Amino acid sequence: MIVFELQRHVPLAEQARHLVSEPIQQAARTLRGDDLVNAVHDARKALKRSRAALRTFRAAFGASERSMAEALRAAGRTLGMIRDRHAKLEALDAFLARHPELEAPLDAFRTALRSSTPLDDPDERARALAVATDLDALATDVASWVATHDAGEALSLGLERAYRRARRAMREAYEEPTTDRFHAWRRRTKDVLHQWTMLRPLWPEVLDGYIRAAKSLGDDLGEEHDAALLARQILHDATLRAAASTRADCLGAIEGVRSELRARARHLGRRLFGEHPRVYVERLLRWRQAWQDESRSADGS
User: Fold this and answer.
1) What is the mean pLDDT of the chain?
2) 68 falls within a domain
3) Which parts of 99-241 fold into alpha helices (H)?
């Protein structure tokens, strides 16, 4: 099992390379598994951890970071196209679990969606394996990186940037509540979540709570996004055009679910992202200093 956390007795620049490269290697291995749907899902999660680490230490690696960021985005886009097709069916199943009264009206729509979403498409598998090969090369490349700037300073800048972007994304989502803006907020929340996971050894008893809350927020925003995609699918589905009342009922129910999720996310987001970014980073850096001092005291005893 890969540990996506800081280590006390390892130089920070070396840790940064490890935190970027290990999830890439994990994603490559996962994509060669038998279950394509779950492999793509797990690989995408691993790449998001790598990208979060890359953004955190971006100031330490200069041009290497920029080229790697683009390569990981390209891999993510390819896997995302595979994942999105299956996510629509998962979103529909989750929606029907909450609204079983709509199962019968949506039966034909669900059948059509399932028939268009094979569990193991040969073309999709070929694309996934091609991504795995690319990822092998990227992981090897990271091992040769040399830090051009202080990794500690890069960490401070990366923490502040991620938190500031999450705060801004939340504000923009509620100022203009569009699907894209809420999805952007979810991505920024995930960046901060991955940073808290990296920093967990600093104070596990406290950061475990932050991590659980951020996961809950990410899940709510992910469900909101899936519901938006489902509504778009229903709106344009040919099998429902003749049943206008059924379509209206479905869209109304989905909008109610989305409103509930957005309200819940707002309350949680205000707690997680309520600090000024500089105050937030200073607090984390004090925790890191205390963690390092604790280790030195133990070594000297």
Assistant:
1) 90
2) yes
3) 107-115, 122-142, 151-175, 179-199, 204-235
What is the total count of domains within the chain?
A: 2
Question: Do 120 and 15 have their domain in common?
Answer: yes
Instruction: Check: CB of residue 149 under 8 Å from CB of residue 60.
Output: yes
pLDDT band at 241 (very low <50, low <70, confident <90, very high): low
CATH number at residue 119: 1.20.120
User: What pLDDT, on a 0 to 100 scale, did the predictor assign at position 114?
Assistant: 77
* Chosen domain end from 130, 146, 162: 146
Cα–Cα distance between 274 and 261 in angstroms, integer? 19
Q: For residue 123, is it within any domain?
A: yes
- Within this chain, do residues 138 and 163 fall inside the same structural domain, yes or no? no
- Whole-number Cα distances in Å, 103 to 60, 108, 116: 53, 9, 19
Q: What is the DSSP letter of 208?
A: H
Q: Which residue has the tokens 């300073």?
A: 153
Last residue of a domain, one of 146, 178, 202: 146
Q: What angle do CA 72, 273, 286 make, to 5 degrees?
A: 85
Q: State which residues form the domain around 21.
A: 11-146
Domain match, 207 and 250 both: yes
Rounded distance, CA 77 to CA 88, Å? 17
The enclosing H or E element of 88 equals helix 63-98
Query: Mean per-residue pLDDT for 278-290?
Result: 97
DSSP 232-285: HHHHT-GGGTT-HHHHHHHHHHHHHHHHHHHHHHHHHHHHHT-S-HHHHHHHHH
Neighbours of 235 (CB within 10 A): 13
